[in-house]
Specification:
alpha+beta; eight-stranded antiparallel sheet; globular
């Protein structure tokens, strides 16, 4: 069900001044940036919000942010701080031409294209403590779940209006179920002494972050991710 969602990732750069609303509405949140980067980007940074026992907050996001690529919902038994630490590993990436870029995995347009390009090891590392991701589909009338089952990526596509009554994996009760085989996706780009990450299609890659969330520059592919300092 929609109210099984425990956390929501929101993109301050995408939301611009509207990010102030959830920051005031829900005090249980953490910024994925820290230190100098947190000071530099302020509220244009990505945030993770605890949505457990906060149906009004979930309703606000689905009602106001759907089809605007504001963020991604997820389910996890881990704390907000633990999830924040996990996701910080993927904030900064190195491209095939060795440029450092910000990886906008919290943008549903990016995540739903990125995940099928990963191999089993990469999927396990990216999901980590996350049971499933839930986000708007390419068709805003539908939502898509992504989860791992025996190391394989699976997805459900359901109508948005069915979200409240939908039972997520593994006992799915509606929508269209898909098995995504990483073997058919793009091969990973390797980088010496670094974790490999499958290349991201150009139109799905993260943009260069500015403090106004503008000037999007897409890269060709990710060669590895690294812990954000």
């Amino acid at each position: 069900m929609l109210y099984d969602v425990t956390h929501i990732l929101l993109d301050g750069a995408r939301m611009e001044k509207l990010i102030e609303e959830p920051l005031k509405m829900n005090a249980e949140h953490e910024c994925l940036y820290s230190g100098a980067q947190r000071d530099r980007f302020g509220n244009t940074a990505p945030f993770i919000f605890d949505s457990r026992n906060k149906n009004n907050f979930i309703n606000w996001y689905v009602g106001k942010g759907w089809d605007k690529s504001w963020g991604v919902m997820l389910k996890s038994v881990h704390t907000t701080s633990e999830l924040s630490k996990h996701f910080r590993k993927f904030i900064k990436v190195k491209t095939e031409d060795h440029r450092d870029m910000f990886f906008r995995f919290y943008d549903p347009r990016v995540l739903r294209i990125f995940l099928p390009t990963c191999d089993h090891t990469q999927l396990h590392e990216f999901f980590g403590p996350v049971e499933y991701f839930l986000m708007e589909g390419e068709d805003p009338g539908h939502a898509v779940y992504f989860w791992l089952e025996n190391g394989h990526l699976n997805s459900h596509h359901i109508e948005r209006k069915q979200l409240l009554n939908y039972s997520p994996m593994p006992a799915y009760s509606g929508g269209v179920k898909h098995r995504v085989d990483a073997a058919t996706a793009n091969p990973p780009v390797t980088h010496s002494n670094a974790t490999t990450v499958s290349p991201v299609p150009q139109h799905a890659a993260g943009d260069t972050h500015t403090n106004k969330g503008q000037n999007e520059h897409h890269h060709k592919g990710i060669s590895h991710w690294e812990m954000f300092d």
